[in-house]
Predict the 3D structure of the following.
Amino acid sequence: MDYTEVDISAWKRKEVYRYFRAFDSPFFNITANVDVTALYNFTKEGNHSFVLACLFNSTKAANSIEEFRYRIRGEKLVCYNKVDPGCTIFLEDETYRYCYFVYTDDFMVFQKEGIKVIKEIKANPDFDPRTDKDDIIYYSIMPWVSFTSIEHPKNHNSADSIPRIVFGKYFRENNRLLMPVSVQANHALMDGYHAGRYFNLFQDIINRPGLQA
């Protein structure tokens, strides 16, 4: 089994969980700039994909935090052993499609398979939102805007427990490259503390990207 069921009655967050489960829209969103200088240089020097490197390292950080792997299943709560990244891919006709990757601890394997998946989507651009899949983190890439905040479409389903992470346009400041990153999550499952842990861990990982390949 690739997940375990959480005993909500014994969970330390049970009161918070039950409180926010009653909300129509229990989501919060945090946006912060991340220093991608070392990661950018690593990808350019090694001829790697910057987008896939961001996806790999971000998913690595998220998988290290249990709260990013919680999912609501009706009246149950489960915790996946691992979640994978799904990302929007921009097409030449200025539309997008969803692309699904399998996370692995080996960046070179992840990149090789990721390039293959992207090519397949571009060759056969079927619209496949896979609404039945929840062992995933939804990613979006917005390389046109260095946004300071962002809001996602919502159907006000309080059981929607899949985090959303968006990478924006990186920009130069004081000889460093900064990239806005947005994290949206269900407050019933995590707090700003856990989102903060993600940002700190993601930053720590990409500060030494050569160790990841």
